[in-house]
Design brief:
66% helix, two-stranded antiparallel sheet, mainly alpha, two-stranded parallel ribbon, 3 domains, 4 strands
Length: 215
């Protein structure tokens, strides 16, 4: 855990309050943070751990309700899987570097990530200062932010009417949906053991399997 702890310490010192940090095992990592010297500062700065969307579905339902970005206000449409995309793109280096000398392999990997960073910077939009020290936004860049904004507007436009129709038919509202999550959390917390009928069904199936093997 020493490496993610060191990174979290750096992130807190640079970005400060209300930071959302995604990690495949954030559910376990944030418990570790609370027991380290970083704990009080992390709590003071209101850092929030998130399990990325793709990895979140490998966790159990109770974990998803607390850590999946789908249920965390403020995450928007972000899935927090950029690292996976970076690793996936870097796989293209394998064919061209596997027979290279160590120097040229290192050189090609370094160039790959350098241009990757440059592309991300351009797609995120560039702010710069002109001769009069005014902050100017370069509108020729920023496709990433622009496309995400368009996608968010499209979801609001298409999904809100559907939600309103369903709410009217079911007689529910925003408060009900929040309460559903609270009730589900409470149900899972109180579910210490499987219901007795489920246990009997499983035992019966296991007996049938043992009988099949015996025969």
């Amino acid at each position: 855990m020493k490496y993610p702890l060191a990174m979290l310490n750096k992130l807190l010192s640079v970005y400060g309050k209300d930071l959302a940090v995604a990690y495949d095992i954030a559910c376990a990592f944030m418990k570790t943070v609370s027991h380290t010297s970083l704990g009080p500062n992390a709590m003071k700065l209101n850092v929030r751990g998130i399990v990325p969307a793709f990895h979140g579905h490998a966790h159990n339902r109770a974990c998803q309700l607390d850590w999946h970005p789908l249920y965390i206000e403020g995450t928007g449409i972000e899935d927090f899987e950029e690292c996976e995309r970076v690793f996936s793109k870097s796989n293209d280096l394998a064919a061209g570097t596997r027979l290279s000398t160590p120097f040229h392999r290192h050189q090609q990997i370094e160039q790959h990530f350098y241009f990757h960073d440059e592309d991300k910077l351009v797609n995120s939009g560039i702010f710069f200062f002109n001769s009069t020290r005014e902050c100017i936004y370069d509108r020729s860049t920023g496709r990433f932010i622009y496309e995400n904004y368009r996608q968010a507007l499209s979801r609001i436009k298409n999904d809100e009417p559907k939600l309103e129709t369903l709410s009217r038919v079911l007689g529910t509202g925003p408060a009900d949906y929040e309460q559903f999550l609270i009730c589900e959390r409470q149900h899972l917390q109180n579910l210490k053991t499987e219901p007795s009928e489920v246990i009997k069904m499983v035992e019966y199936m296991e007996c049938l399997e043992r009988l099949r093997i015996a025969r």
